[in-house]
Structure formats: structure tokens, C-alpha cells
Amino acid sequence: IAGITQAPTSQILAAGRRMTLRCTQDMRHNAMYWYRQDLGLGLRLIHYSNTAGTTGKGEVPDGYSVSRANTDDFPLTLASAVPSQTSVYFCASSEWQSSYNEQFFGPGTRLTVL
Amino acid sequence: EDQVTQSPEALRLQEGESSSLNCSYTVSGLRGLFWYRQDPGKGPEFLFTLYSAGEEKEKERLKATLTKKESFLHITAPKPEDSATYLCAVQTFSGGYNKLIFGAGTRLAVHP
After folding, report:
1. 3-class SS at B37?
2. pLDDT digits over B36-46, tens only?
3. ∠ at Cα B72 (B21, B57), nearest 5°?
4. Cβ-proximal residues to B70 (8 Å cutoff; 6+ apart), any chain
5. pLDDT above 70 (res A99)
6. Closest residue of chain B to A43, computed from CA coordinates
7. In terms of CA atoms, which chain A residue is nearest residue B10?
8. Predicted local confidence at residue B95, as pLDDT
9. Cα separations (Å) of B57 from A112, B30, B31, B43?
């Protein structure tokens, strides 16, 4: 089934630890995104990638890094997790990074940093 | 400042009781307005895109409309399976990329 997969589904992490959230899409979309969703707030963009080999900072990039080695994979890394990074993280993709393409979302990763 | 506000925060309806959800926005150059549905523990699911004032789109019991300052999601004769959080997002070009700004959502509960 075409779509986006994320791993892990959930994770409890000690503060200061390094963590990588994985995201893979099989729709051959050029653009990919990472969002965080917090209670009472809208989804906020962390980082994005227009095409393989390029990345950009979104609204809340501090404490996170991404890479885009190929079209399908877009991992998000927390170098040294802090409790404020407790959130639900969603990966998304769209055919192009343009206003005419809707974004499709993965099932999310629930991360708790203690 | 670009902003999206959804109201109400939560809405409880009886099955068959039609209503509307509101999404008001302030952006410097609207490129599109998106509606998504999100079920508990799941990712947002795309519903509609609207691009210009006066545009309308329909899907089953849902109809989305757009004006220059707001969008409405009308739900006609809702069923319990329509219960979900509905998210509105506006797209604008800012910081060198097409940016989606999401509202906090409206939690809809439809009771039999």
C-alpha cells in the first residue's frame, strides 16, 4: 500500500540522549516535511526538503537536524533530547514543494523525553 | 503576522444535526487553503484544497467554502463516523518556501 511509514510508533527517551525518527515514503514524492503537533497548537514545521540532497529550516528547527540522501527517506535527529521536545512528530510528503500539491501525512511518532 | 484561528475548539452534535466549522486567517498572500481530518492517534488525512474566494468543494456530507478572510466546513446530516478533529491550514510563501500554517483544529463529536 502506497504511503508514508514512520518508526518508531512511540518512544520514551531520557533527556540528553540522541534519537533518530525514521520516515519512508513510496510515492516518489519530491518534497518531504517534518512537523510536531502539541496540544492546543497547530502542526508546526521543523524542517523540509524540496528534493533529495536539499534541506531547509522550518518554523521550529532548533535542536533538530535532517538529511535527505535519497528520494524515499527523510530521518529526523534529536542530537540531545530535552523535555520540551516531548511531542507527536509527523512526517509528510508532497509531489512538489508548491502551493498546488497537497501534503500526505504519516501515522506519527509519539515521543516522550523525561 | 500570519495566523490561522479555528472555531469552535470543540463541537458536539447529534446525528443528523447539520453545522459549520470556521477557519479564519490572516496571511500575506494566500496560495491555498487546505482542510484535513485527523482521527485519534493517526496522521492528518487530506480532504480539500481551495484556492480563491467563492470556490466550493464537496465530498459526501462535507462542503468547504472560501472567502477572502475565512473558510467554512459545512457538515450536513453528520453521522458518528464523522467524529474527528478537523484541521485547517493556509499556504503562503514565506522564508523562501511554501509554508503551511495550521490552525489548532476543531474536535467534532457526533452522537447517535
Report:
1. strand
2. 999 999 999 99
3. 125
4. B22, B23, B24, B25
5. no
6. B102
7. A40
8. 76
9. 39, 18, 17, 22
